[in-house]
Known about the structure:
Elements: H1 19-30, H2 37-44, H3 48-60, E1 64-69, E2 78-83, H4 90-108, H5 112-128, H6 137-143, E3 148-150, E4 157-160, H7 166-171, H8 173-187, E5 197-204, E6 207-212
Antiparallel strand pairs: 1-2, 3-4, 4-6, 5-6
Amino acid sequence: xxxxxxxxxxxxxxxxxxxxxxxxxxxxxxxxxxxxxxxxxxxxxxxxxxxxxxxxxxxxxxxxxxxxxxxxxxxxxxxxxxxxxxxxxxxxxxxxxxxxxxxxxxxxxxxxxxxxxxxxxxxxxxxxxxxxxxxxxxxxxxxxxxxxxxxxxxxxxxxxxxxxxxxxxxxxxxxxxxxxxxxxxxxxxxxxxxxxxxxxxxxxxxxxxxxxxxxx
Length: 216
């Protein structure tokens, strides 16, 4: 199963994946949801140790993300894996860069989420200050690959159905989504509504929820 990200199609110039990695991605795409190592081994026909070997480069480049499922009793929590849709190349390298920057923020700051949010606010203000780039927040978010959709049940809420840094956001939502919330606050700075912004990462299946306004 793939989770939606802002990932372009592969080009003819891209190198094909090694056979083992390609087999794992095909297996993940065929499964109905995030898979355990054992499920992935069965679906791919590979030995579990071989699955581990081929998963590592896919995790590092952002083509696969790992989630942790808490067990019902004692014992180690189970890891599950899901394909992001990314492939080694510029988009995957961008994910790797984002994760490296997340690590840098966490090392340098006592409050990584707040530092990320402040960085996002600066980014948003710079965008808003560019006359050629001024537009409604939803238009800016669309242009940046967030897939915003109005919520019919709440005029203050926008559903973000895509994420340009999905793999990084799943690994570090406090920092990556903090930057994205700050980005919106920076874009809204001139209107005075920047203090009424709340971004809830992965609030529902397939979307984050962004609330803007006094009721946020």
